[in-house]
Amino acid sequence: MPMRAYRTMQLAKNGLYRVTGEAVSATGAGNGAADRTLRVLMYHKVNDLSPNPITVPTVRFAEQMALLDTLGYVPVTLDAVRDHYVAAAPLPERAVLITFDDGYRDNLVNAFPILRDHGYPAVIFAPIGYLDDSRPLPHEEALLGYGVHNPTLAWADLAELEAGGVRIEAHGIGHRRLAELGPAEALREIAFSKLRLEERLGREVDAYAYVKGSRADYRAEHASMVQQAGYELEFTAVSGANGPGSDRFQLLRYNVEPYSARTFELVLAGACDVLAVKDTVVGTHARRAVTRALGMASR
Model-level pTM greater than 0.90? Predict the structure, then answer.
């Protein structure tokens, strides 16, 4: 059964992160503080449905948000990140940007109240083709067979989120990997999603997040398209922290799993960064070959 295989793989993955993180931490290795001025967290779904890949349970999300304060991290706004990379404005020590991909409605229902209680800003990267749409996202279609539906946000939800400090930014139109598209289609995904969001939000849209976002999912010309379309920042799904000299059109993010408190701490500290090999072109293809073999392939 694919979902049972997924749960087994998830446990193995979390165990690998913990063992690797502890080993690296014990040796004192890892990135120096000067190269780790911004950590960007990437979430997707926050709910308690099961089986449900790329989901962090609500209680675990609340625990992770509380840990940010306990561990001395400072959640910052997207504006602060933009000003840091565009105008060299300083960020607070141990700055963190909290982001969500794909525009799930549970970001509003479950994550938003927790963020609001802590006073944390955040960003949701939403594919505009799935706002006000009852269709599941492409990688969600198989879950319907298990009775699991993860609805996306409606346009009417965006004002409430923005009023509460959660920025809505661009994630294309149809949730498609740019590397699979021709130049004209890729440019439309990038440029039209920005224009449409700006019309509805009444402000500039500054950031774009690549769909999937590993090194295999976009190319150098796509970063150029993002820049030419007028964005100030672009986010990948390549694991790691960012420093002052990071390319603002290829910013790194940590994909957050239902980690234990200790594993979450190790990830933020950079002790698991060696595992970013999974986000290389070769690593991505190998990882996807495994999921296909297990019957868990998704778009």
Answer: yes
